[in-house]
UniProtKB/TrEMBL annotation, chain A:
SUPFAM superfamilies: Folate-binding domain
GO biological process: sarcosine catabolic process
InterPro entries linked to this entry: SoxG, SoxG_het, TrmE/GcvT-like
Pfam families: SoxG
Gene: soxG
Name listed for the protein in its UniProt record: Sarcosine oxidase subunit gamma family protein
An example Gene Ontology molecular-function term: sarcosine oxidase activity
Automatic annotation (TrEMBL), chain B:
Region named Disordered: 90-113
One BP annotation, GO: tetrahydrofolate metabolic process
Coiled coil residues, start to end: none
Pfam families named in the record: SoxD
The protein's name: Sarcosine oxidase subunit delta
Molecular function GO labels: sarcosine oxidase activity
NCBIfam families assigned to the protein according to its UniProt record, in alphabetical order: soxD
């Protein structure tokens, strides 16, 4: 067990917790286009986000034992468990993003630290710093084409790919976990900006916001 | 607008994701205290400004955030190659000069014939 100081960022006390979009819902609302909608937008708030850094071989062994997932070794790849609830994404040759259901991140971090022992690695809990937005529907790719500089055509962006790129001038992780779903991981401080961009860009497709 | 191949991401990306970081392969003197003022000044402040092949450092700032090297032609802006940190360029001013000389000679021969 490494001697890094760790703590669970989720408290048991009755402090109200708000998603990064709480302010945006109050200020910009959550438009409902109803049956004519070609685009669904949903925030998957309060998930557990961990950044793993270190050598691929030691980290792979640890996540396989603790999480039951292989560490994606190839650039721009994303692996998920059968439920799709837990995922690991390649970010850089020595950096991966793990996303798990909210509340699982601290036990996972603790188990990984136990497993990795004195290996050379770093784990950072970034759950509070970013949030995941999910877009789906037939116009989802059209929306991305208006917004990102990266080529999102299926020939270049198959299911199971994830990249860090520029989304409306903000740094954003874009992932494609399944055929009809895209995920954006945005910084908390950019969440309102990205949300309002999505509402504006999605207006022509009749965006439906699920809260 | 450049379309740059990141050797770590293994694909081409828009220039907007990158930042240039100056001349590549600058080595810090092993013993700074043993340097003359001129050697230290050259290391700190003086950079090449060639007309032609140049080796530069770039960072994939919005992406993998890794530094890498690029061989670029300062006249045509053509990117000749990109390669990882710690690697040596396969294209240099010397390697580029030779085929041009050879081409020039063959042209002259063509004139003569
Ligand atoms: Zn890269």
């Amino acid at each position: 067990m490494s001697n890094a100081a760790t703590f669970d960022t989720r408290t048991d006390t009755a402090i109200p917790v708000e998603s990064p979009l709480a302010y945006s819902y109050r200020r910009s609302g959550a438009p409902q286009a109803g049956g004519s909608s070609r685009l669904q937008l949903r925030e998957r708030a309060m998930l557990g986000h961990l950044i793993l850094r270190g050598g691929a071989i030691v980290l792979d062994e640890a996540v396989r034992d603790v999480l039951g997932l292989n560490l994606p070794g190839r650039p721009q790849t994303l692996v998920q468990d059968a439920s799709g609830e837990r995922s690991i994404q390649w970010l850089s040759p020595d950096e991966w993003l793990v996303i798990v259901p909210g509340g699982e991140e601290f036990p996972l971090e603790t188990k990984l630290r136990e497993h990795l022992g004195s290996a050379h690695f770093a784990i950072s809990d970034v759950s509070g710093g970013q949030t995941l937005l999910e877009i789906s529907g037939e116009a989802a790719r059209e929306l991305l084409m208006k917004t990102v500089i990266y080529d999102v055509h299926p020939s270049n962006f198959p299911v199971g790919k994830g990249v860090t790129t520029v989304f409306a001038k903000a740094t954003t992780i874009i992932r494609r976990p399944s055929e009809d779903r895209w995920e954006l991981v945005v910084r908390r401080s950019f969440a309102d900006y990205c949300y309002r961009w999505l509402l504006d860009a999605g207006a022509e497709f009749g965006v439906n916001v699920q809260q | 607008m450049f379309y740059i191949y990141c050797p770590y991401c293994g694909e081409h990306r828009e220039e907007e994701e990158f930042h240039p970081k100056g001349q590549a392969h600058i080595e810090r003197p092993k013993e700074p205290e043993a340097c003359s003022d001129e050697e230290w000044g050259n290391y700190l402040f003086f950079r090449d400004n060639p007309r032609g092949v140049h080796h530069e450092m770039w960072v994939h700032a919005v992406g993998c955030r890794k530094f890498f090297n690029m061989t670029r032609h300062t006249v045509s802006y053509e990117i000749l190659e990109t390669y990882k940190m710690g690697e040596q360029p396969s294209i240099t001013a010397d390697s580029q000069a030779k085929p041009r000389e050879a081409a020039a000679v063959s042209q002259q021969e063509g004139v003569r014939a």
